Amino acid sequence: MKPVDKHVAHARRTTATVLKQWSLPEASAEDARLVVSELVSNAIIHGSGDVRLRLRYDDHELRIRVTDDSTAPARRRRASAASLGGRGLHLVACLSLRWGVAGGGRTTYAVIPTLTEAPPCRRTTQSSTDLTC
Q1: According to the model, what pLDDT value does residue 132 have?
Q2: What is the pTM of this model?
Q3: Where is the Histidine kinase/HSP90-like ATPase domain (predicted)?
């Protein structure tokens, strides 16, 4: 197992444990675990220094913040069909109500809904097969 894989798996397990203690709905917890995986992976691969994960839950939203020492902000990329990477922040955007960068580029955050409001990719238009994202 590569070091990045080990750290991401640890972050995902820790997140799962905390969200279970908070009794987060399973659909929101599943989305949160994926978002944590993507943000922590990006911080390890593209950032620098220690990577810190913070979770905050207020009964309406789960806020995920991942911070490293790099001042280069996270940016969405367009991945070609043949690319192995470059889709992580697109997934984060689809699973979150909102996401962004703060702290001079050092922190990337995402907000996951925990009530009935679905994130953009989970909302449907008139046809149940048409996603808005």
Answers
A1: 37
A2: 0.81
A3: 6-97
* The residue to which tokens 């839950």 are assigned: 57
Q: How far apart are CA 91 and CA 77, in angstroms?
A: 11
Phi-psi region of 24 (alpha: psi -120 to 50; beta: other; left: phi over 0): beta
The pair of three-digit structure tokens given for residue 133, joined into one six-digit string: 């994202």
- CA-based torsion, 58, 61, 66, 67: positive or negative: negative
pLDDT at 130: 37
pLDDT at 17: 96
* Cα(114)–Cα(120) distance, integer angstroms: 14
Q: What's the mean pLDDT in 50-75?
A: 91
Provide the β-strand partners of residue 109: 65, 100
User: DSSP class of residue 131?
Assistant: B
